[in-house]
Specification:
mainly alpha
């Protein structure tokens, strides 16, 4: 893929991903576009670590979301037990829900480390400092997502990353 197209995909995808808490389908499409664009630019630069970081970022996010869905399901299944007074079942459901929240949070932070690394590499390759800022904001957003403030930071990080992709100079092929 041409670097101009990869920049456009990653930029537009990142901006669309920023609205994922509001509009899930658009957000998912944005994440996929962002991923395809970032991987294409990593291939263009010949940077395998940047490509691996992008792929693992996505994998960890996907697993974290599956864990959250499982946790929410377990929590929801214990609600009828609350109505019937089965406290043991309610306790199990609540404990399972909290455990999956912690596991998902750890996976989310792990993915954020990959995202920050990918953005640092992109900043180094492109000379665009906004990538570095986007990576840091995303990381701290992942850390703070447990108190919901992090969702705002992550949205801002995606917007900054999108702008950085759209304004970066057309990359020149480099050898690693």
């Amino acid at each position: 893929m041409e670097p101009e197209m990869a920049k456009l995909l990653a930029g537009v995808g990142a901006i669309l991903a920023a609205i994922s808490p509001v509009e899930r389908i658009v957000g998912i499409i944005g994440v996929v576009l962002f991923l395809v664009g970032a991987i294409s630019l990593a291939d263009f630069y010949g940077d395998q670590k940047m490509k691996d970081d992008a792929i693992y970022w996505f994998i960890f996010i996907f697993i974290a979301l599956v864990v959250l869905i499982v946790g929410a399901s377990l929590g929801a299944l214990s609600l009828p037990a609350l109505m019937t007074g089965h406290l043991l079942a309610v306790g199990f459901g609540l404990a399972a829900f909290l455990a999956t929240l912690v596991i998902a949070w750890i996976l989310f932070i792990t993915s954020a480390r990959r995202f920050r690394s990918m953005m640092s590499a992109m900043a180094g390759r492109s000379g665009e400092g906004m990538f570095q800022t986007a990576g840091s904001l995303y990381y701290w957003g992942a850390v703070l997502v447990i108190v919901l403030v992090g969702l705002i930071l992550i949205a801002i990080a995606f917007i900054l990353a999108g702008i950085a992709f759209l304004v970066m100079k057309t990359p020149a092929k480099t050898q690693t």
